[in-house]
Specification:
The chain is of the alpha/beta class and about 575 residues long. It folds into three domains: about 190 residues, Alpha-Beta Plaits, CATH 3.30.70; about 80 residues, D-Maltodextrin-Binding Protein, domain 2, CATH 3.40.190.10; about 250 residues, Alpha-Beta Barrel (TIM Barrel). The chain has 19 helices and 25 strands. Strands 1, 2, 3, 4, 5, 11, 12, 13, 14 and 15 form a ten-stranded mixed sheet that branches. An eight-stranded parallel barrel has the order 18-19-20-21-22-23-24-25, surrounded by seven helices. Helix 15 links the parallel strand 22 and strand 23. Helix 8 packs antiparallel against helix 9 and helix 14 packs across helix 15. About 50% of the residues are buried. The structure holds phosphoenolpyruvate and manganese (II) ion (MN). The site of manganese (II) ion has 5 residues, from loops.
């Protein structure tokens, strides 16, 4: 059994990250919680634990210098980098309500990371705690429903708490980089991942000395993935630099460059080279081969349409694609999700039967329209708020997050309280006031492509949402209007590779509306997965002949099962 020390108590992020890391490797781990990061180093040095976990930086809060300093001070050997998404949930006692909260406890950095959400809890005071696990334990022990904690979902199970809110970090890509360290013995063999090297150095107090160090690295084609400075204790105006390089220090080019840097420095500490096994770095993994320092030029930038209209949505802003989290469902990356449900919510029976059926067959999110944009004013217009409530009820009953269309600005606030994802329908893709209104929430938005909108117009529409501060946008290709009349719309699957290139946002395909004819949905669902969509949206009805909207494209439960089986045999697209 592997032992690994971390700072905190059961349910702290470090603890959860360690379990996930070793779990994914099929290795059993016993985690040992200690009080401080120094204690983590001590546990490793004394042999009380084989490994220790030290944070080195966080996407929002920046560098944890303690992590680097302890590795240097105690000569610990970094083995692997673990990148962990900090999944912050607001946890309280059963029966607690957001409005009733008076105190929210969390680690001070976590409070910082969730600042925007906390500001919406006007009645509650933020109180720092030693770590997230302790905060959750305090809430459970205290028995006061006015007190809540921010902690990972695993802490809810452990301490018998319920989730009052999810997705509460200011930024969805809230990653912490940890180093897994061991006592300095022989180097652990590399496992074929890309390698990274960390070092601390202090340049001489002479003009151009940092520039010369950087030039030595650049000349050898070594990519510097991080450089941060802080004043050196006891010396004025001299700085220690914390640097990470995308290479192994022993690679031939890197070795020469590092020797040159060493010669230019007053102080130089190579902390070591390690595997980058962290999951969100798949893109970088490809860019940085493990055995050699890459001096190859970057590929030519792809033609990027009207990117000036959508700087926030454009791919170069976030080369590693965005993943939108909806409760415990993640959309983006290399997972493929299926969202299913009726076109319209018609009754409790119809919706519950569909929800249970699609859940059993592998759907992860429930759709259902309550406000319907119909071509004719005499067609069924949806059940309105009654439908929204039924959808929320069915989502709770089956444990699925929900998505429903919001048609007007005045519906946004109430809809965001009831459903997990706000759908902007094709007919509203350029309803700019509506886009701004959903942009002011932090609820994920499913933005469908307009019937005659170009891909650049779709991305500019997404930009409206992002520009207001809501980063959780999912794009959806649902068919466009062309001269072809054989199908309801023309499903433009070429949108998927183009959007993947132009934007970092996740992309869904809706073959139901795209083709409009039940029997053609199956081949197009397969194609959507093969072409690289992050998921599909399907309309399913217990009795399609009686569906009050979009009856021709409604799938039976059996049709849906066949499609799900089909999809299982198509490999997920490698990002
Ligand atoms: C729907 O999802 O039911 C719908 C009306 O979609 P669209 O806006 O793509 O037509
Ligand atoms: Mn529909």
């Amino acid at each position: 059994m592997i032992t690994a020390a971390y700072q905190g108590t059961f349910g702290a992020h470090s603890d959860v990250a360690l379990r996930a890391h070793f779990g994914a490797r099929g290795e059993e781990v016993e985690t040992v919680g200690v009080a401080t990061f120094r204690d983590v180093a001590a546990a490793v040095l004394s042999g009380a634990a084989r490994y220790g976990l030290l944070p080195i930086d966080n996407a929002i809060a920046g560098t944890f210098r303690d992590g680097y300093d302890l590795v240097a001070q105690y000569d610990l050997r970094p083995v692997r980098e673990i990148t962990w998404r900090m999944d912050h949930r607001l946890l309280g006692l059963p029966g607690a309500t957001l409005a009733g909260l008076r105190t929210v406890e969390a680690h001070p950095i976590v409070l910082e990371e969730c600042g925007r959400f906390l500001a919406t809890l006007s009645g509650a005071r933020a109180v720092p705690a030693a770590d997230t696990g302790i905060a959750a334990g305090d809430v459970a022990k205290g028995g006061d429903p006015r007190v809540a904690a921010i902690a990972p979902p695993q802490a809810a199970e452990r301490y018998g708490l319920v989730e009052l809110a999810a997705n509460i970090a200011d930024h969805p890509d809230n990653f912490t980089r940890f180093l897994l360290v061991e006592a300095a013995t022989e180097a652990t063999p590399a496992e074929g991942f890309p390698r990274r090297t960390s070092l601390l150095f202090a340049t001489r107090h002479e003009p151009g000395s940092l520039a010369k160090c950087l030039a030595a690295l650049a000349d050898a084609g070594v990519n510097l993935s991080k450089l941060e400075s802080r004043p050196r204790p006891g010396t004025s105006w001299e700085y220690t630099f914390y640097a990470d390089l995308d290479c192994d220090a022993a690679a031939p080019g890197a070795k020469v460059a590092l020797d040159a840097v060493r010669a230019l420095c007053a102080e130089f500490r190579l902390l070591g080279s390690y595997d980058v096994a962290g999951e969100p770095d798949a893109a970088r993994r490809k860019a940085a081969p493990s055995t050699a320092v890459s001096a190859a030029p970057a590929p030519a930038a792809p033609a990027n349409g009207q990117a000036k209209n959508y700087p926030k949505a454009s791919r170069p802003t976030r080369p590693v694609g965005t993943r939108v989290r909806v409760r415990d469902v993640e959309i983006g990356g290399d997972t493929f999700v299926v969202i299913a449900g009726p076109c319209s919510v018609e009754s409790r029976e119809q919706l519950m039967a569909t929800a249970v059926a699609v859940r059993e067959r592998g759907a992860v999110m429930l759709r259902g329209g309550a406000f319907k944009p119909r071509t004719s004013p005499y067609a069924f217009q949806g059940l309105g708020w009654e439908g929204v409530d039924l959808l929320a009820e069915a989502g709770r009953a089956t444990g699925m997050p929900t998505v429903s269309e919001v048609m007007s600005v005045d519906q946004v606030e109430r809809m965001a309280r009831s459903v997990d994802v706000l759908q902007i329908g094709a007919r509203n893709m350029q309803n700019f006031d509506l886009l701004k209104a959903v942009g002011k929430t932090l609820t994920p938005v499913l933005l469908k492509r307009g019937l005659s909108a170009s891909l650049d117009e779709l991305l500019a529409a997404a930009e409206y949402v992002l520009a207001e501060g809501n980063p959780h946008v999912i794009l959806c290709e649902r068919g466009i209007r062309t001269f072809e009349t054989a199908t309801r719309n023309t499903l433009d699957l070429s949108a998927v590779p183009v959007l993947r290139e132009r934007s970092h946002l996740p992309i869904l395909v809706d073959p139901s509306h795209g083709v409009g004819v039940r029997r053609w949905i199956r081949p197009l669902a397969r194609a959507a997965k093969a072409v690289g969509a992050h998921g599909i949206l399907l309309e399913v009805h217990p009795n399609p002949a009686e569906a009050k909207s979009d009856a021709d494209q409604a799938l039976t439960f059996d049709d849906f099962a066949v499609i799900m089986q089909d999809l299982a045999s198509i490999p997920a697209f490698d990002d």
